[in-house]
Amino acid sequence: MTVTDLVTDPSLYAALETSAHAREHCMSMLDRLYRNPSSSSVEDSQAELFKEQKILHAYLSQMRGLNRRAALDVRETKQITAEARQEVDRLHLQLQNLYYEQRHLRGEIAACDSYDEHELMIARINHEHAEREALEQERQGLLKKKQGLIADNKKRKDDLANLDQDLEKFIDAAKPIQKTFEKEY
After folding, report:
1. What is the spatial distance between Cα 45 and Cα 35, in angstroms, rounded to a whole number?
2. pLDDT at 40 exceeding the cut of 60
3. Is 169 within the bounds of a domain?
4. Residue 147 pLDDT more than 70?
5. Helix and strand tally (H, E) in the chain?
6. Mind telling me which InterPro entries this protein's record contains (predicted)?
7. Domain range spanning residue 53?
8. Residue 183: pLDDT band by 50, 70, 90 thresholds?
């Protein structure tokens, strides 16, 4: 299996091609250095080596740019993958909620299907009996409250009637004093 079989992203083919060219260029430079360790003209060999190094540096800078681009692409792909994973998780949770709701509703349907009419009627009668007892207790409480209010009103009415009588007596007792003040001296 070759590297080109493993790499499926077209943008990485350029990086592979550039790295292959840089590798071949390095190998040819090393071969030339090993074959001609002491060349006839040192200046010519250094000039040629300098030219070869420039080409190699160009390949390497191109590789850095492609590597940077690949790293940015990987970061973008990771972001897209994370967003897609979040969406899948959200949809999975929604599906689980729907399954739970479906099981609950099926249980409710089964409970409704298994009702016995006789038991249902007994439950209704028991419920109505409990409601009537509660209402009767409430009625008794209200009657006691009503009787208490009637007794309180009667007492106040009697107090007001006694107040009228006491006021009449007071006015009658004050008449001699009033006559005394009406005299002119």
Report:
1. 12
2. no
3. no
4. yes
5. 4, 0
6. THO_Thoc5
7. 3-114
8. confident
The contacts of residue 39 (CB under 8 Å, 6+ apart) are 45
- The 3 state secondary structure assigned to 70-122 is HHHHHHHHHHHHHHHHHHHHHHHHHHHHHHHHHHHHHHHHHHHHCCCHHHHHH
Asked whether residue 46 is domain-assigned, the answer is yes
Overall size of the chain counted in residues: 185
Task: Decide if 167 is inside a domain.
Answer: no
Domain count for the chain: 1
Q: What is the pLDDT of residues 110-127, one digit of tens each?
A: 988 887 889 889 999 999
Q: CA-to-CA distance for 173 and 160, rounded, in angstroms?
A: 20
The structure tokens 């590798």 sit at 23
Using CB atoms within 10 Å of the CB of residue 119, give its burial: 0 to 12 exposed, 13 to 18 middle, 19+ buried.
exposed
Q: What is the pLDDT of residue 42?
A: 65
What is the Cα–Cα distance from 47 to 45, expressed in whole angstroms? 5
**Host H or E run for residue 176:** helix 117-182
Q: Which two tokens stand for residue 19?
A: 């790295």
Pick from 81, 79, 100: which is nearest to 89 by CA? 81
